[in-house]
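Supplementary Methods. Inverse-folding protocol.

Structures were first reduced to a discrete structure-token string of length 211. This string, shown here, constituted the complete conditioning input.
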């Protein structure tokens, strides 16, 4: 007779979040009943609510976990040039989206939420990505507001393109990376020269891969 493997609390929590990601990725938030997660995991509702007291707590935990994984997998290699760091960062972002499709879809659904904790998680992710680019390109401690606006706008484009790539399987990560690198050049080139750090300006021409 087969014996059931007992999970650690961390393993059980991850299992529940994995199952929840699938539900939130394919259904609007209001249509998801997290009791269904307990059914899929074959655990009691009491155990589910032990880990996550409410659906909101569950969803916030899911987004926090996905954001932590994203930031870890896209961490820059400081030994690379700024141009290489940027390209590798985009490639890692797209790889993460492919490897964590359910979680990424759930995050994108959560991006339209007005819940302050959810808004804060997504805002923190974008802020940290902007900071990484600023550090890599030697920007001053207080960068020009237009530069920050431009970088934030480009990161929103990266996120949107990643989501569209998941929806349209005809789009390859290589093609999306090439497009986003060109978009970065166009975005920064549209700024006044005085707001662009010299290191960032110096690498713009190296970012677009010829066809």
């Amino acid at each position: 007779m087969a014996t059931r493997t007992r999970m650690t609390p961390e393993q059980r929590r991850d299992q529940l979040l994995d199952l929840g990601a699938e539900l939130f990725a394919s259904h609007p938030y209001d249509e998801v009943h997290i009791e269904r997660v307990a059914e899929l995991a074959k655990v009691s509702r009491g155990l589910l609510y032990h880990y996550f007291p409410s659906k909101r707590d569950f969803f916030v935990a899911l987004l926090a976990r996905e954001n932590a994984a994203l930031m870890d997998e896209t961490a820059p290699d400081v030994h690379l040039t700024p141009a290489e760091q940027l390209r590798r960062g985009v490639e890692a972002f797209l790889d993460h989206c492919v490897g964590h499709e359910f979680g990424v879809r759930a995050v994108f659904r959560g991006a339209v939420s007005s819940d302050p904790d959810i808004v804060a998680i997504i805002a923190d992710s974008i802020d940290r990505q902007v900071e990484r680019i600023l550090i890599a390109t030697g920007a001053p401690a207080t960068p020009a507001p237009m530069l920050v606006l431009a970088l934030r706008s480009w990161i929103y484009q990266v996120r949107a393109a990643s989501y569209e790539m998941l929806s349209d399987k005809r789009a390859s990560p290589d093609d999306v990376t090439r497009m986003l690198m060109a978009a970065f050049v166009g975005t920064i080139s549209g700024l006044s020269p005085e707001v662009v750090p010299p290191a960032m300006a110096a690498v713009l021409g190296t970012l677009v891969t010829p066809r």
